């Protein structure tokens, strides 16, 4: 009985070996060399053909695209907002006394602001008339390229420019946070000469997960200072014509300086854009037309 | 010691075949049925040879027991104790009491012929033997069965997916402020899919097996016993061996009893043996075989009339019925072929899923993804790989076929058995109807001392004899008048051969034949008004009617008669030759015998015809013919001729057929030749010997292709000899095999890999019915037990329905292939997005939710609709499927679905994905490697190719729009896929688009896709977004390419049969 079993096992193992390589028929995995060759050749040709077809359709699709403006922009109706420095997951935490804790923020700000240096801006960009759109239409088929851009000078950020205070207030517990409005081609963020402006305040947040209890840190926030004055994005920086047409576009910034924020506590801040043309973003998108971040200044 | 249980009935059958074919036809479930076993297409057949009775009681020959023991030891197959018990049960009945004298029996049971048992003895026996009841076999608990359904097949894979989902969600919930609900929902959906599929299969299985209950219904409740000289009615369960029992007409017999006295007692053994005629019982032993002898009556059979008294010899499970019940309910039935195929397919898919999943899990870890991400990839790959909806689709397809078959009077009890008939390579049947067209036609006639071939052409172009012959006209008149069949109304425009007839098969054949050659039979009958009639019955074995003559001046009556040729000849004194009545002399009788033998030898059903003009003086006009108490002459008739009919074999009958029958070898051979089992020109060893006039032993068996094996020889054959026979003969007939051997033969066939179908109606057939891959029971004549043991029931007892079943089974197998090819194809466009997501770091092109929308939503109806597809070619002309080679899912199907069509589909989906991203500002060049920033929630100023900046949510909406577009593209390419999957060989232009369900499916999936994309709220519920109209068209070129590619492939396939394309791509 055990003999038959052993035989069976032997038989099945030799079957397996045959299935892999059958020395009698010279078959590898059930196919001879020519059979393998033929099927692999077929798949090679077939996939080359498919690749060709795919490249062709992609090429045709790319031909239909405009070089200067994407076909659809409906998802960008409300521009997003972002802060700089970004911190770690939009949390700006530092200790006033520990230089290393805010050093990286000032470093990134320095790098980020270097293209905004006045000298560079004067050299590259125009000094535009403020409070009106800087419109440079193409005349029909003739492209009016490259388009000019307006100067945004670093000095316009005053206290937060890093010129007078090279630590952007971090060393004194009065940090500057830069706020920018996402670039969207052709967007006109205001009308009647009214520039959109940024306001920051405390953010309502849920105290604990699952519980419907809300709180805001209004009392901890303290007074704020906005640069340029009133925290406006001047209309002259709009519209944006895209990175191909408007190579030297300088994105306008608003700096917020927390003059007397409470220390040793988390402060939830939300900044939002106020404009008479931009619609409010959807509830789901936490960064359309607003930006929220957490600030914590440790001071001993 | 070894007897065939059905010896008498087989003997009867032989006689029937030779002389009384007509009578046999009239009683389709009696003697005629019992014995013809036909084996289809089984190229090799092994029949277990020696089966000895297991003698438990004293007087058996000891050497036989030894032989049995020897056999059992040598058999390597059976090892476990349980199987050994089953082996015992398979042996023939060990009753010996019928051969003992009554005194001996009394002595054995310590009972008294008058007084019966004492109460004390009865109680003692009851304790010793247990109650007289059938013990049900141990059954698996319901919850175990349920769990088996819940954790079998794909379920394990999906459970893994679901658990990983919950795990991922738990991790996310613990670490993130606002965890995305995706994984939670996905986990819930996956769990739901598994549970629903599991419940579905569970209920499907739960309703199947109630065999034991049906046996219990046959058990009597009460019994009249004589104990201590008093008649008492007791519960049948309390009857013990040795009890003296009295039964009367209408009672069920409460145990196996040895009759000690009887008064006109007749028992109906039909539930046990299928023998429909009541058999008388008497105290005498008439046969060595307990099942044949008259002095034993069996548990649960019915006493029809009279009374009898007997001593109980076996109770409960030891009775003949009990043994069958235990055997039947204890038999392990193997998986159905389709279940095996699906399992094979699940193995392939699971293998691919696990391989890909693990590979990419490891790859993801190596590429530096976090554990959580790697787990999410794993979930995605599993979800994409498992065709979640497929098992439901298969079940629905099978249900649809089952319903279709139910309409054709084929009730399918076990869904999976729907397909089994289609792959059946061996049919064991005691009815030839399976092989023939069930369309009896007149083949030959004998009159004027000559055999003529009947002309069955519609325009009578094939006439081979002189139609003006007086004898022929007389014969036609008898055949037309002595015939109760008539055409159904309203068919005058149809060709005669296609008209429906009310009447039995041979009368219909005669009617059509006469109508074709002599014109309207109805007019003939109108001219010769019927005065009296004796319909056919089994005692007379003839049918006669009396008519007025056509000539209104002739007041004589015409008596016409037809029936079994012998019986007719016996009643004739003259014979009509060349229109003249001649006395029947020995020479003419000899000629008749020769003609009859010749026609009978062709396997044809022969009828004799005669007539007489009744003398007017004895039977004046208005004579009252009394058909009850026949008051007129029924002999001294004038023989007119013979007509023979044949049921033409089906074209579909496969070439290699083995027939197993209880018939006499000569009859069996004739039938086998008639239905083409032994083809023309093939000879048996005996034929060669006869031709060359040498002894049989001198013939080289290898010269003979055909072979007829006698049952008695069969027993003495060793396994090697048996194999030798099977190897060297292509056409084999087993004759004189007993029905008891059915089970053994079924097992033999199955061991050789054949898929066996068994038909039967008696309780004694039930073990074979259960053991067979598909058991087919008779709806009308079948016993309850046989119906319970069977997988399929022929409601109208019409064996032609089996052929319907074979056809439907083959069709559903083909269509399931198509359905699976269709469903599997969309796996590639579901998997590739993940692979590219992981490898080239692009935003995810297709999410798990959308994958589920495809698998459980849009793909379902088209996949099911393929079950409605009609056959591409004559599937009945095909050889039965070889289960070892012809798989449901083979490498060619995978190659086509995954390697070719699936790849085109994936490209279509990716194209839509790139179009949407590019039109929104992200050109393909920007996408590669973007994933890390793209999926970072805190990056809300991600720059696109145009310099615009995007928040997380904004770009995620675009990504989900891409998922929607990818999903819609899959729907679009699946349009083409379902159309190409309609056919495996033919062009769709040949096949046509007549499948309305499929067209509905196309619209349904499109509507569902549009709904999912445009319905408000879908962005929140399923994260699917409205598409711009132009995005629907992205996949159109690919859809078209699929269609064109596959049409070209099929064209090459048809142009070069057996060519490379066929070898590599015909699935």
Layout of helices and strands, plus pairs?
The complex is a heterodimer of chains A (300) and B (1067).
Chain A: H1 2-20, E1 21-22, E2 27-28, E3 31-32, H2 33-63, E4 81-84, E5 91-95, H3 99-113, H4 118-124, E6 176-181, E7 197-202, E8 205-206, E9 214-215, H5 218-221, E10 224-227, H6 242-245, E11 253-258, E12 266-274, E13 290-298
Parallel strand pairs in A: 5-13
Antiparallel strand pairs in A: 1-2, 2-3, 4-6, 6-11, 7-12, 8-9, 10-11, 12-13
Chain B: H1 7-18, H2 21-26, E1 36-40, H3 62-74, H4 81-90, H5 102-109, H6 119-129, H7 142-150, H8 155-175, H9 182-206, H10 211-217, E2 222-227, E3 230-235, E4 244-248, E5 256-268, H11 270-273, E6 279-280, E7 296-297, E8 302-314, H12 320-330, H13 337-366, H14 371-385, H15 390-407, E9 410-412, H16 417-423, E10 426-428, E11 441-447, E12 450-453, H17 470-481, E13 486-487, E14 501-502, H18 505-518, H19 521-527, E15 530-534, E16 542-548, E17 557-563, H20 565-570, E18 572-577, E19 580-583, H21 586-601, E20 605-614, E21 637-646, E22 657-661, H22 665-674, H23 685-692, E23 706-710, H24 711-716, H25 719-728, E24 731-735, H26 742-751, E25 756-760, H27 766-771, E26 774-778, H28 784-789, E27 792-794, H29 800-825, H30 827-840, H31 848-858, H32 860-865, H33 891-919, H34 924-927, H35 931-934, E28 942-943, E29 949-950, H36 952-981, H37 988-991, H38 996-1014, H39 1018-1021, H40 1036-1055, H41 1060-1065
Parallel strand pairs in B: 10-25, 18-21, 22-24, 23-24, 25-26, 26-27
Antiparallel strand pairs in B: 1-22, 2-3, 2-4, 4-8, 5-6, 5-7, 5-8, 9-27, 11-12, 11-21, 13-14, 15-16, 16-17, 17-20, 18-19, 20-21, 28-29
Keywords (chain B): ATP-binding, Cell membrane, Ion transport, Magnesium, Membrane, Metal-binding, Nucleotide-binding, Phosphoprotein, Potassium, Potassium transport, Sodium, Sodium transport, Sodium/potassium transport, Translocase, Transmembrane, Transmembrane helix, Transport
Family (chain B): Belongs to the cation transport ATPase (P-type) (TC 3.A.3) family. Type IIC subfamily.
Domain Cation-transporting P-type ATPase N-terminal (chain B): 96-170
